[in-house]
Design brief:
6-stranded mixed beta sheet; binds magnesium ion; 21% strand; 10 strands; 4-stranded antiparallel beta sheet; alpha/beta; binds adenosine-5'-diphosphate; 283 residues
Length: 283
């Protein structure tokens, strides 16, 4: 079953002078098993939107239905929330126990699993995200590097085996190799666990590589949805919106403007290289 977002509007501080409509009439369906990317510039409403998926915040109007559970209903929300694992933008907020293992085991324990089961699941999850329990289990979360913290936060969530894995800027602040590592882990996880992944990122590069379908948020509204091919064939439009289109997409667009006929579906390094090689061998 899908996640259905219907005419969702969220207004912060309603009835005050600082009233701000952060999400405005968004309609969106996320299908089971999809790798769904959400992009948009800072402040466009991405985090606000996804915080509705586990009922962390409530719509000002509209509805969110997770697997048939209406998240505005208190009883149904408890059931819906159990299906959604949310990894927040700032992992420090999620790490609070004295050891990494305790931290990762916290969620499963809270679900009612025994201490032993929770520990087993936590160790499994740590291995899945590439944190060797031998090395990391007894460390303090605060001794971890940025990338390791993100992995630990991710492990804590996947240890609960959510059906929907929601990630808010999981690669933010990491160096390129850290980014690649976390992104690869997420893709591998999805294959292994078969969960639906919803990933927010302001990096189109990262989303272009991994997502099967993409939503673009702009000024609190859903600007467009489509496959990466559909979205990145509109690179010019995205740049005009102030979005950081993938570097390769920008280069391709620049070449088009100079009269070089680069096809619209060239927006990753891999495709560009392939296209360029083909052109050179024909020259
Ligand atoms: N708790 C809050 N109270 C008031 N305004 C907020 C709050 N959280 C976010 N906003 C505002 O809502 C808008 C959307 O924010 P957010 O959803 O965090 O966007 P994004 O994740 O795309 O950067 C921004 O203008 C932000 O300042
Ligand atoms: Mg955000």
């Amino acid at each position: 079953m899908p996640i259905i977002i219907e005419k969702l509007t969220h207004t912060y501080m309603p009835n005050t002078i600082s009233r701000h409509i952060a999400v405005d009439s968004v309609d969106l369906t996320i299908n089971e098993g999809e790798f769904f990317g959400i992009i948009g510039h800072t402040g466009s409403g991405k985090s606000t939107l996804i915080q509705h998926l586990n009922g962390l915040i409530q719509p000002t109007s509209g509805r969110v239905i997770v697997d048939g559970y209406d998240m505005s209903d208190k009883k149904q929300r408890v059931k819906g929330r159990a299906l959604v694992g949310m990894v927040f933008q700032y992992p420090d907020y999620q790490l609070f126990d004295s050891t990494v293992l305790d931290d990762v085991a916290f969620g499963p324990k809270n679900m009612g699993l025994s201490v032993e089961e929770a520990k087993t699941r936590a160790e499994e999850a740590m291995r899945t995200v590439g944190l060797d329990p031998e090395q990391f289990a007894e460390k303090s979360p605060f001794e971890l590097s940025g990338g390791e913290k993100r992995r630990a936060a991710l492990a804590g969530i996947i240890a609960m085996r959510p059906k929907y894995l929601v990630l808010d800027e999981p690669m933010a602040g990491l160096d390129p190799s850290g980014r690649r590592g976390v992104l690869e882990t997420i893709s591998a996880l999805r294959k292994e666990l078969g969960c639906t992944v919803i990933m927010v990122s302001h990096s189109m590069e990262d989303v272009a590589r991994s997502a099967e379908r993409i939503a673009v948020m702009n000024d609190s509204k859903l600007y467009m949805t489509g496959t990466p091919d559909e979205i990145f064939s509109k690179t010019k439009e995205l740049i005009e919106l102030g979005l950081d289109a993938p570097q390769t997409a920008r280069l391709a667009q620049l070449l088009r403007e100079r009269g070089v006929p680069v096809p619209e579906d060239i927006y990753t390094n891999e495709r560009f290289t392939e296209w360029f090689r083909g052109r050179m061998s024909n020259a």
